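Hi all, posting the design record for the shared folder.

TITLE: backbone redesign
STEP: 1 of 1
STRUCTURE INPUT:
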C-alpha cells in the first residue's frame, strides 16, 4: 500500500488467455446428510471436500480444470518438476523395480529348467522389469492438474483452486476479483508463484492471473518520479510477444498521460502513437466471442486427441492379440511336431523289438532239435557234396572197366526233404 493507505495495484488482468478456465460445468453436492461429508467430483476425477463454512444458497458449483504447466513460468515449473521427481516418482519407482527384479530372480532360481508355461511367466517378469527401466529413461512430468471451483455465496462470486491436489479445499485459499479484495495466493511453497483471479461468471470463464517475467509498467502519474511512492499505480504490464505463458496485465486508467521529451520528439512521438494503438482495444463483446471460439476449438482438439488416443489403444490391443495368437499357434505347432517325433521313435523301437523277437524265436527252434539228428543231416550233406563235386576212385575204375556203362549207374544222394535238414544245413 501507499503511504496514504491506498492500494498500489488496483487491478490485475491476463491479456494472453493462457490463464482462462472453462467453468461451464455445474455440479451439486453428492451427499449432504451431514455437514462433514459434503463432496463434489472435480473434472480431474478427484473427490473435493466442501468445507462446512462455505455458503452457497443455490447449491450450484461451477467446476473446471487447469494444467499448472500452462500458467506458471518455465523456471518455476522445472524446479517443481525436479522436486516431484526426487520426492514422489523416484522412491516409488525404485521400490517397484526392486520388487519386479526380486520376482524375476526367484523364478529363475526356482525353475532352472523351465517348461513352456514357466518360460512364458519368466518372459512376463522380464518384460515388466524392462518396462520399468524404460519408464525411468523416458520420464516426463506433465505437472499438476488443478481443479477449479467457482460459486456465489449470495453476494459475491468466489473462486477456489485445489492446490493440495487431494481435494482438501479447506487447505486452499478462496479468492474473489482482485479489484474487489486485492488478495492473492501461492500455488505451493516450492514454486512460490503468486496468482490472483478474475471471475467472468456471465461467460463461465475463470481467469487465473500470474505475473510474467517480461513486463513494462506505465504509470499515470510519472511526471514527478518522487511521488510514485505515495500514489496508486493504475497501470499496465505490456507483455513481451515472445513470452506468452504466465504473462499478465494490470488494468489501465482512462486518463493515462505520458510525458514527451522535447529533445527527442521523434522517438517519443513513436512511443505515444504505439501506446495509443495499444489502448484502442476492440469491443469487449468481440473479445468474448473470440474467447468462446478459442475455447470451442480447444474442446474440439481435446475430443480429437481423445478419439485418436482411443483408436491407438484399440490398434495396440489388436496388435497384442495378434501376437498372442501367433505365440499360441507356434506353441501348438511345436507340440504337434514333438508328438510326431515321439511316435516315430516309438514305431522304430517297436520294429526293432519285433525283429529281435523273431530272431530269438528262430534260434530257440533251431536249438530245440535233437543233436544226433542234426549230426546225421550234416553227414548226409557232406557226402552229397563230395559225390557231386569229386566222384570216388572205385567208381572211376568201374567206369574204365565197363565203358559201356552209363551215368545212370551213378546214384545221387537224395536232397534233404525236411525243414529240419534245412535248418541243420544252415547251422
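Okay, here is what came back for every position:
SEQUENCE:
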Amino acid at each position: 500500500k501507499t503511504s496514504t493507505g491506498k492500494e498500489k495495484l488496483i487491478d490485475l488482468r491476463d491479456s494472453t488467455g493462457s490463464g482462462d478456465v472453462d467453468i461451464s460445468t455445474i455440479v451439486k453436492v453428492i451427499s449432504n446428510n451431514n455437514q462433514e461429508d459434503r463432496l463434489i467430483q472435480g473434472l480431474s476425477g478427484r473427490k473435493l471436500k466442501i468445507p462446512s463454512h462455505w455458503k452457497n444458497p443455490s447449491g450450484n458449483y461451477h467446476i473446471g480444470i487447469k494444467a499448472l504447466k500452462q500458467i506458471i513460468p518455465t523456471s518455476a515449473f522445472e524446479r517443481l518438476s525436479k522436486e516431484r521427481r526426487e520426492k514422489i516418482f523416484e522412491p516409488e519407482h525404485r521400490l517397484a523395480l526392486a520388487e519386479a527384479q526380486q520376482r524375476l530372480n526367484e523364478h529363475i532360481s526356482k525353475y532352472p529348467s523351465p517348461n513352456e508355461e514357466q518360460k512364458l511367466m519368466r518372459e512376463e517378469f522380464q518384460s515388466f522389469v524392462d518396462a520399468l527401466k524404460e519408464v525411468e529413461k523416458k520420464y516426463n512430468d506433465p505437472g499438476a492438474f488443478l481443479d477449479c471451483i467457482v460459486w456465489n455465496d449470495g453476494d459475491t462470486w468466489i473462486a477456489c483452486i485445489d492446490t493440495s491436489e487431494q481435494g482438501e479445499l479447506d487447505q486452499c485459499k478462496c479468492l474473489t476479483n482482485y479489484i474487489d479484495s486485492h488478495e492473492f495466493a501461492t500455488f505451493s511453497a516450492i514454486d512460490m508463484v503468486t496468482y490472483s483471479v478474475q471471475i467472468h461468471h456471465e461467460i463461465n470463464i475463470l481467469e487465473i492471473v500470474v505475473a510474467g517475467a517480461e513486463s513494462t509498467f506505465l504509470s499515470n502519474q510519472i511526471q514527478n518520479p518522487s511521488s510514485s511512492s505515495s500514489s496508486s499505480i493504475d497501470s499496465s504490464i505490456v507483455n513481451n510477444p515472445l513470452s506468452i505463458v504466465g504473462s499478465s496485465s494490470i488494468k489501465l486508467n482512462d486518463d493515462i498521460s505520458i510525458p514527451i521529451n522535447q529533445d527527442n520528439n521523434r522517438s517519443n512521438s513513436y512511443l505515444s502513437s504505439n501506446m495509443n494503438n495499444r489502448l484502442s482495444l476492440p469491443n469487449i463483446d468481440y473479445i468474448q466471442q473470440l474467447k468462446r471460439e478459442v475455447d470451442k476449438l480447444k474442446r474440439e482438439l481435446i475430443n480429437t486427441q481423445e478419439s485418436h488416443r482411443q483408436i491407438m489403444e484399440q490398434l495396440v490391443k489388436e496388435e497384442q492379440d495378434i501376437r498372442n495368437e501367433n505365440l499360441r499357434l507356434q506353441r501348438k505347432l511345436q507340440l504337434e511336431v514333438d508328438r510326431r517325433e515321439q511316435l516315430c521313435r516309438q514305431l522304430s523301437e517297436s520294429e526293432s523289438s519285433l525283429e529281435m523277437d523273431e530272431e530269438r524265436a528262430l534260434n530257440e527252434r533251431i536249438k530245440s532239435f535233437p543233436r544226433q539228428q542234426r549230426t546225421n543231416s550234416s553227414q548226409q550233406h557232406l557226402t552229397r557234396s563230395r559225390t557231386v563235386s569229386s566222384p570216388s576212385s572205385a567208381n572211376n575204375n568201374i567206369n574204365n572197366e565197363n565203358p559201356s556203362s552209363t551215368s545212370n549207374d551213378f546214384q545221387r544222394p537224395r536232397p534233404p526233404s525236411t525243414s529240419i535238414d534245412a535248418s541243420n544245413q544252415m547251422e
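COMMENT: The longest strand covers residues 145-152.
Let me know if anyone wants the other runs.
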